[in-house]
Amino acid sequence: MTGTVKVEGAKNAVLPVIAATIMASKGKTTLKQVPALADVDTISEVLRYMNVNILREENSLYIDAANELKTKTPFEYVRKMRASVLVLGPLLARYGHAKVAMPGGCAIGSRPIDQHLKGLEAMGATIEVGNGYVEAFANGRLHGARIYLDFPSVGATENLMMAAALAEGTTIIENCAREPEIVDLANFINQMGGKVIGAGTETIRIEGVPSLQGVEHTIIPDRIEAGTFMVAGAITGGDIIVEGAIPAHLRSLIAKMKEMGVKIEEYENSVRVIGTDELKPIDIKTLPYPGFPTDLQAQLMTLTMRAHGTSVLTETVFENRFMHVEEFRRMNAKAKIEGRSAIIEGPVTLQGAEVSATDLRAAAALILAGLVSEGRTAVTELKHLDRGYVDFVGKLKGLGANIERVYEQKHNPSNDSMMQSS
Ligand SMILES: CC(=O)N[C@H]1[C@@H](OP(=O)(O)OP(=O)(O)OC[C@H]2O[C@@H](n3ccc(=O)[nH]c3=O)[C@H](O)[C@@H]2O)O[C@H](CO)[C@@H](O)[C@@H]1O
Ligand SMILES: C=C(OP(=O)(O)O)C(=O)O
Known about the structure:
alpha/beta, binds phosphoenolpyruvate, UDP-n-acetylglucosamine1-carboxyvinyl-transferase, Chain, UDP_GlcNAc_COvinyl_MurA, 4-stranded mixed sheet, UDP-N-acetylglucosamine 1-carboxyvinyltransferase, 26 strands, 14 helices, 26% strand, 2 domains, cell wall biogenesis/degradation, RNA3'P_cycl/enolpyr_Trfase_a/b, cell cycle
């Protein structure tokens, strides 16, 4: 594949930022570079349900949360998207009450929210969990606290940072997540009038303020989408430019791809990827940022199937994020799971097959594998893909891929399939 592909605003940055907009009791918020994703629609629906005015025009969202808001979120939204739980901190901080459906597990793990709740309790909240809901109360404003997270959870860091922004006094979150999306959220809160220091390091300090206001903010580029296209360039032995990729956000992927023999040129706001036939095997361990992202594990796995030798991919962030391995085996991959590791023997000639996407990144990875498989591959369950990729098929076609999106039943997108032949 050759050519240039442009990345969208980051899904994992825009979702917490949209949740944070409900803390603005005055003024309106304009968000720019908002990707047209199913997850953005879902969180927009959550806000509308709560009585927030929210309007989308092209890549911008206009949000007015100055009305009195409902402080409850029903299960139907959280079921579609776990990130709905990010309204818990903002609602509790603004209203002293929040009732949010408990997110269940999903295909990648059980995903509890104990660290979110532990932090909110330390800030003075009373929490009740029952009948599938978590309900939190604060007697007046939350107060500042010193919180040590057991694990640098992205969602817990975000929920607590938002709650602390409107709390009385200073909150210190230690062992917090350091992802670029945390920094984007902190920048947004600070633009709103908040006082957050240290985002991007292991300790964040937040001085609470009495109120926050709406502002204009541009969402950072999606490093996971960028990384997915970088792998697409490499696996097809192509030469592609990923525009909007910030190399500093992709250090671990760039290092691993270079170790495999892929040529990568870095520019300020783009990367060029030049594939090779002589891929070397690698060992990878997923870790919180700046370690290798779990959200790129499945995609990079496809590249290891083309490498000459044995690669070991160890998943430490989620306990069950190897559902795609079984699907890859249907495509002739020599792959097995041993404990928390996937062992991949390469190189193999992948064969087209009918496979099913088990989660969002598995969907992208199966499509990447399909690009280099002999014969036709059909990927189903594309509702997962639509959560996190804008026009993935169109963008790959633009780079020269032989791929079509097929709508089998118009009103049930989960039945769609994706086909490609090589
Ligand atoms: C919308 C969004 O930004 N999603 C990302 C976010 O998810 P999310 O915020 O859910 O991920 P976390 O960092 O919270 O979870 C990481 C690990 O910690 C565990 N955990 C988390 C919270 C908690 O209270 N207790 C607990 O045990 C989880 O089960 C998981 O095993 O970060 C993940 C890890 O980089 C990414 O894969 C997701 O794409
Ligand atoms: C796991 C992911 O997302 P979420 O946390 O929204 O399920 C992802 O983006 O790969």
